Amino acid sequence: xxxWIPAASGLLAGFTAATLFFGDFSQSVxxxxxxxxxxxxxxxxxxxxxxxxxxxxxxxxxxxxxMFIYGVPSMRHIRTVPVFSQxxxxxxxxxxxxxxxxxxYTWGDLHxxxxxxxxxxxxxxxxFATDVGNSRAAVMNLETFTVRDIINVPNTSGPHCAAFVxxxxxxxxxxxxxxxxxxxxxxxxxxxxxxxxxxxxxxxxDEKKEKLNISYQVALPPWSFDLSDAGKKISKDWAxxxxxxxxxxxxxxxINASQADRDYIVLFNWRELEKMVKEGKYDTVTGQxxxxxEKHKGGIYLVPVAKSPHGVDVTxxxxxxxxSGKLAPxxxxxxxxxxxxxxxxxxxxxxxxxxxxxxxDSVMEREVNPENALGPLHTQFDDKGMAYTTMFISxxxxxxxxxxxxxxxxxxxxxxxxxxxxxxxxxxxPDGKYIIALNKIAKDSYLSVGPSHPESMQLxxxxxxxxxxxxxxxxxxxxxxxxxxxxxxxxxxxxxPKDEKNKDAVYKxxxxxxxxxxxxxxxxxxxxxxxFIFDAKAKRPDQxxxxxxxKVVIHLTNIDxxxxxxxxxxxxxxxxxxxxxxxxxxxxxxxxxxxxxxxxYCTNFCSALHQEMTGYFLVxxxx
Amino acid sequence: xxxWIPAASGLLAGFTAATLFFGDFSQSVxxxxxxxxxxxxxxxxxxxxxxxxxxxxxxxxxxxxxMFIYGVPSMRHIRTVPVFSQxxxxxxxxxxxxxxxxxxYTWGDLHxxxxxxxxxxxxxxxxFATDVGNSRAAVMNLETFTVRDIINVPNTSGPHCAAFVxxxxxxxxxxxxxxxxxxxxxxxxxxxxxxxxxxxxxxxxDEKKEKLNISYQVALPPWSFDLSDAGKKISKDWAxxxxxxxxxxxxxxxINASQADRDYIVLFNWRELEKMVKEGKYDTVTGQxxxxxEKHKGGIYLVPVAKSPHGVDVTxxxxxxxxSGKLAPxxxxxxxxxxxxxxxxxxxxxxxxxxxxxxxDSVMEREVNPENALGPLHTQFDDKGMAYTTMFISxxxxxxxxxxxxxxxxxxxxxxxxxxxxxxxxxxxPDGKYIIALNKIAKDSYLSVGPSHPESMQLxxxxxxxxxxxxxxxxxxxxxxxxxxxxxxxxxxxxxPKDEKNKDAVYKxxxxxxxxxxxxxxxxxxxxxxxFIFDAKAKRPDQxxxxxxxKVVIHLTNIDxxxxxxxxxxxxxxxxxxxxxxxxxxxxxxxxxxxxxxxxYCTNFCSALHQEMTGYFLVxxxx
Lengths: 623, 623
Hints:
Organism (chains A, B): Neobacillus notoginsengisoli
CATH superfamily of the domain at 370-492 in chain A: YVTN repeat-like/Quinoprotein amine dehydrogenase
Number of helices of chain A: 9
GO molecular function, one term (chains A, B): nitrous-oxide reductase activity
Oligomer: homodimer
Protein name (chains A, B): Sec-dependent nitrous-oxide reductase
Helix content of chain A: 10-25%
Radius of gyration of chain A: 28 Å
Largest sheet of chain A: 6 strands, mixed
Keywords (chains A, B): Copper, Metal-binding, Oxidoreductase, Periplasm, Signal
Strand content of chain A: 35-45%
Subcellular location (chains A, B): Periplasm
């Protein structure tokens, strides 16, 4: 095909007004190219003003505790939504509601995000996530992109292996990465195998109340549970999770947890576990219903797998689960149907820690070992059912056919991908258009920001014959997984509706008031362009005066029912900032423990007179 | 020129293998187009893997308390660097050093970032910033992109009008947005004009010690000081700042601070103020040297300006300062030379609050009023000395000539720009290639993330005949200003050098140890791929056992002297996470107030065996 180039160049040389010619000709070629030909990578990822991205990417923020929202294909970072960590940009962790949700914690380690699902498809209503650092789970409402509930998960330590939801969001399962003594009591590590347990929690979500709830827990062996996935279609009542350290080592896991040739995939039927709970087959531990499988048999099985597997992923058709072993060169495809048959036939190879072990050969469909592909971690899928596995060590994504094991394509990524995420990749019907590699090492990829580098996400176009990396986007620490949803599935609101039942809300200036009860001061105020009104009848409606030591409760309502008119509220030197979005009422409670004169002001630019949106908080010293 | 299109199309139609032809021809055209012709906007902002952005953008994070680092022209968000707020992603606010720097505060409101300068040019060594929320200043080292010092600025409230540094970083000036009684004592607002003062602090930076220091303060009238700029070249010993609320209103500033037709620009000579301090012409207030201009005359002058000005910007040649009034339609160009002459001739119009007022007509060079341009806020400059002013209300950037007042070009932005930032725009030699509009309103620009929208930055290409918006980038709340520096000026390190003098650091495994002194436990540990070693001689080197109530001090050194190998350290349920970058030693101190068994782990993905990089923190219950 190269022969065309000189021919074309020769043609062009015939024109004397070459510059002018190029000027317009390139325009006309461009127009035709855009319709008839492949776009350049630059054009593929460019979203001109007036158009919008096609997908939302929700990337876990890891130890930042937050969720990062990106647009795809532009890979622009749209917003950081606070989940487990404080965020003064939105006042998250300062206003009473979020402060209470965060409880005793100021940060979290947000691992795997999971959209709510209906019939195995993302429904765009909620996003769930877990905190490995402080053992919590959270739910975010996607009308407002705000967290509605956080629960502590007792008896567990590090729910890394979550959250993945079942086909109709009946459950999300939170198995633990760390084994601890039941109830997290003190127990010596010499007693590890006897006293320590891994725990899987089955968490439900009440959509009406927007509340998470622990339905039951299962006391598993003291192994590390790493990743999980829920079944789909024929396997919808089942879920799978990988294990490592089945050696039950208690130190230097780098070496000691990689001794055995095989670890296990835990295969469980949550309908059966649910039934066991209904039948009372559990013990109560720290207020939780906990199934001890050694006492109450059934519903949980072990499938031997190559040592130290990391990811386990169910194919969109629900027929297979694919485990990837970071220390093994192979992906292993297991068949749910074969597993069901083996369970029915009690085709067991004995027990381990009270759990029946299936025969590897009875469940294994095929082992897939692309040449020189090293460190397979996670697998995603496209609209044709093809699999895409990240190779941490050989730094690439390998496309392969789970039905044949054939390697179809490979693309290098920079560098060391952990997870990858495909468009609608965890649903029963992936979109197949894009996959994003979540790379752990970014050295030399971007402008340096010192010894601590950003992570790197690379967008890969799946629409051509060959996979192609078309954009690289740096990202704050540290996405461990992400999900990508079609943009039109998410329906946000732009203004909070009036809530006449909310007794803290004030919508009319004349209803503002400051109520004093002993040493408590309750303020019912308004934020509006471009002033605060705490008591419309006072000489200075934008002043709050209290006495040193008073307990102060400020309710603030933003009565600008206009899109994008958010107000902030901070008191200088009082270490606080809250936000009121359009129509929203927020409350902040604190003690006036410093006497003096403290300006208060709107922290979120709201109008040309934003700078004038100020007042004073006066704290009269104790006599 | 359009006539060329049909001619070209006719030519192309002569080829039968049109598809193939386009395939390669477009390539050859593209190559030639790239050299000879305008790139598409997509191509202008696309930075392919292997190449790097040309500029760093440091955008203030406003009430997020952080600094956002972007690459230009790609407008990719590279990193969030924590400054005034906690950031668990980097352990900032948890390790002893950063915790001490943050002091009593958990958040800040980061306003104007300013690079250190040498001879009026950004030198790429340090970045300064102020905290409006809790009245602090900070300095960031650009070898490591970490904050090295934070100081509280006593006697002041809300140093909004900062930081802008002088030509050789002799000073940065921090004037306050809010007036408070001297020492922030309690005083009734009825006594505002008598007891309240604005305060300007002159802050110096000791590069060797990496310490900020308040050199002196000036007690100004109780007005709001809004923005400032340092002089350049002929005006290098001077600085300017805008004021509003010279009405000294104490409530409803939206109306009451906009009564007078004129406010002032404060023009001061910092060499003279420095001299006054040397001569002992100050009072001591809360340990600070404070000049009271009503007592010690000289060095400070007022220039009348159209009401409620916001920005004031010194031209690159240092000859003019340009004030923009958000409530006035005009930009006013003032001449430093004229001001110097008027001061020399004592051409004053009387005094205001003890400060001499210059005659407007004696200092004003010209008023510039582009047709229908409303809400001028801030002005930046290009390499030709042309000015670019953001128009908040008419949502555009206007290019104009400060020497003639002529309007040269206008470009709409979406929407309501506050500041803008040009490439090297605050130096004596701006680059002139790009300007970025920092827009306050982003509605409909990006995928919606609920009622709280991102802000929006728009990159404008200045290289063509007409300004052109070529990229739009969403950004977290909330950039109030930014500076853009040529990428090659910043020289980062990738690994912290060994520091044999640091008695907390341990570089050899055999030197790790746990030292117990009464109820104190001091751990000298190592983080390395892929394990923690707290005491190499112990049965379990990755275990720390203490008793309930012990004070625990953990020193942790990352001995992986390799680029991009950062380790984290968290103890489950103990609400802590710190980071050790390659070669770095961090310390965290806390009380073991919860008895039980708590897994500890590396939070920052570091190798294929990162998951195995764990251990246990055991807290023996009190008897």
